[in-house]
Every structure is written in structure tokens, then in C-alpha cells.
Amino acid sequence: MGNEMAHYACDCWDAECLTSYGWVECVGCADRSAYDLTQHSKATGIRLAAEKKLPAPKQVEVVEAVANKAAIGKEFKKDAKIINEALASLDTAALEELQSLMETDGEYTLATSAGEFKLNPNLVSVRKSQKTIHVEEIIPSVIEPSFGIGRILYSVLEHNFKMREGDEQRTYFSLPASVAPMKCAVLPLSGNTEFTQFVRELSQDLTSVDVSHKVDDSSGSIGRRYARTDELGVPYAITVDFDTMKEPHTVTLRERDSMGQVRLPLANVSHIVRDLANNKISWSDVEEKYPKFEQQENAKGAAA
After folding, report:
1. CA-based nearest residue to 229, from 297, 281, 152, 154
2. Using CB atoms within 10 A of its CB, is residue 186 exposed (0-12), middle (13-18) or buried (19+)?
3. Which NCBIfam families match (predicted)?
4. Contact predicate 177/275, CB 8 Å
5. Any idea which of 166-170, 197-201, 242-246, 265-269 has the lowest mean pLDDT?
6. Which residues form the domain of 125?
7. Is residue 193 domain-shared with residue 279, that is, in the same domain?
């Protein structure tokens, strides 16, 4: 609605998100047109326009007010300067209106910063002529977008907050991997020191392919640590277990939303997680290629 727009805007659009509080405005876009440069030009008297050279000269019609400055000075004295400046700033539409009213009513009311003044044909007329131009003047317009980052982040978190079916105590953020700040977690199955070298190797491999990750070697069951990473919105978890120490070295990869797991070669996992995070492959693609693993996570382990 016009009365809801800022004074500088000729049009506005909003983007809203549906939340538990109802529809919330998150983005506002204002079409400022050429308001800013136009106001500067009016205040300084300097025309602020870009010029574009034309491929060939062209004829254009020029409409301008012809002020009888001597008569205006005699009639309005100290206000003559303001009137002459106002006449010079009239656009084509206003000049057409001036000419029409002079022909029909014999007078025109000019609005200025100092008030309104009635002008007659003896004081001003309108002249139309042809002019050859070699450049086109353009006053740049501005589209101004405004984003409410706090509202957007809240909406993202609310829309991705989930609870495990049958267990409302287990909550998680189902943030898409491309949005999640942390792409995966590296979890040793236990505090066994023989896992350390594999955890270090995995962390280095993930860093080398620009995958953000965290190592969680804290105490607690693997199920509890899975639940912890789920609450943080981490989409994938790599687990180092006793089978990792055997040749060929393998690890398990877990997907947060489905809690499904596969076993795959340790040498491949960093590239797989990178491709998952970049939406180059899907989790179903991974499940089709690698064998499922279903031993580590269970309800008892998760609650331990």
C-alpha cells in the first residue's frame, strides 16, 4: 500500500516466512528509482546523469519554459529568482500542462518552495523545438534490498527443528549439508589410543578437501555422541571402530536425518562427504554403492 512505503520509494516488495508466530517479514525490497540523485540535483543545481554515446546522432523534441525575466522581476520582485528556477525545473508533463492551462484559462499556478504564484502568458510561454543529440543521458535508478538476518536465521532454525519419532527427547536440526556450518563429525568408537592415528588422518584428509568438521573424542557412548552432533545440525558422522584397524582400513559414515550408516574405505570417505556437502551426490547414491552398517546405533546406546 502507498501509505506503507518509505517516502523515497515508488514501489516496494516484501518476502515473508511462515513461523510459529505467523507470517514474518524477512526481506524488503524498495524501488528508489532515481530519487537520491534527483534530490541532490535539485539541491545543488548540478545535473547528475551518466552519458551513453549514441551510435548515430538523432533528433529529439525539446520542450522548455520561456520566462520573461524582466516582467517576472517587475511583478514578483524578490521572488523572481525562485520562480525562474522553478520554471527551469519543470518536466515535460508539467510543461504540457502549463501550455494547456495558458491556452484555456489564461493563467497557470506555479508551486514553489516559497508558495504558489499565478503566471499569465505575458510572463511565461512554452517553446518546442528540435535538437540533435549525440549522447543519451541516463539517471541511474536504485533497487534497495534489506534483509533481516536475525529473522531469516530464526526461520531457518525453526523450519529445521525436528524430533525423533517415538522419542521427543531426541531433537535435531535437519539443516541441509550445504547450509550447515559443520559438515561432519569424526568420532572414535571409544578412547582406545590405537584409534588416534586414524582420527588424525581423517581430520587431515577432510581439511585438505575443505570440509569443515569437528572431532568428538569425549567420553560417553557412541549413541550419545551421535545425538549430540544431531542437536548441532551436523549432517554426517564418520566413526572409527575396531574394524578400521584391519586391512583394508574402513570406517562407517552416518547420515543424520535417517540415521542410516554405510561402511566404506577410509581413503574415500573425505571425498564422499565433500561431494555430499556440495550436493554433487545424494545419500541414496552412497547407500546404493556401499554396504549398510547397522550395529553401532540403537535405542539403548543413544540413551546411554
Report:
1. 297
2. buried
3. glyS_dimeric
4. no
5. 166-170
6. 53-136
7. yes
